[in-house]
Amino acid sequence: MLRSKILSEELPPGTRLVEATYAKHLGISQGTFREALARLEHEGLVISIPRRGTYVAALPVDTVNQLYELRELVEPLAVRLAMKNLKKDDVDYLEHQIGRLASRVTSERVDADMAFHRRLYELTGFPPLQNMWPQIEVLTRKILSMARRLGSVENTQHNHQSIMRALVKGDEEALERAIRAHMQQTTALFEGRARADDIGKQPAQPPRNAQ
């Protein structure tokens, strides 16, 4: 529940997560709440500051760049492996997700984007890649949750259509170009605008909503 609220920015960066308050609100023990916070901190969604508390984390610009650099290196391999296992049902599923990318609802576009790439990782049949996706998805969702103000989803449907065409044709070179272009375009957008935003800022002082 906390992860969902953070990814949707219902709990925006800088929000202090007070154990007693949130545990009571969720109807759980403070110990259970601390375990949840520990998992979220491992995922990079919250940050614990000694003697000050735990806050919803912003994403440093370097994290955004490094994530998409990782995806640019890994996903060409993932989609090549996926292409060998692609069946008609998979094509239908992927094309359905591309259609959802035209939605005016940000959360639906993000869900469709994640579903598209998740299926490609699943189709690799290679456990190390399959196991890598969940952590990539958590960070990517947080990045894309900010897209409504950064405009990073503007060309998402076009990018995925290019990937899909190459997949169906079995064109490995076009597929790699499409994946790399998709990653590079998103990285360039965030790199150009994020430093002027709050994406990379951690709270220097307890935020106003910390009380």
Could you give a quick summary of the protein structure above?
The chain has ten helices and two strands, in the order αααββααααααα. With 211 residues, the protein is mainly alpha-helical.
Describe this protein with a few key phrases.
211 residues; mainly alpha; Arc Repressor Mutant, subunit A; Four Helix Bundle (Hemerythrin (Met), subunit A); 2 domains; 10 helices; 2 strands; 67% helix; 4% strand
Descriptive account of the structure:
- A two-stranded antiparallel ribbon has the order 1-2.
- It has 211 residues and is mostly helical.
- 67% of the residues lie in helices and 4% in strands.
- It folds into two domains: 2-58, Arc Repressor Mutant, subunit A; 61-195, Up-down Bundle (Four Helix Bundle (Hemerythrin (Met), subunit A)).
Stretches where pLDDT is under 50 for at least 5 consecutive residues are 193-211
Structural class: mainly alpha
What is the CA–CA distance across the termini? 21 Å
Q: Identify the CATH class of the largest domain.
A: Mainly Alpha
Which fold name corresponds to the CATH topology of the largest domain?
Four Helix Bundle (Hemerythrin (Met), subunit A)
Please give the structural blueprint.
Layout: H1 2-7, H2 19-26, H3 30-42, E1 46-49, E2 53-56, H4 61-84, H5 88-100, H6 106-123, H7 127-145, H8 147-150, H9 156-169, H10 172-193
Antiparallel strand pairs: 1-2
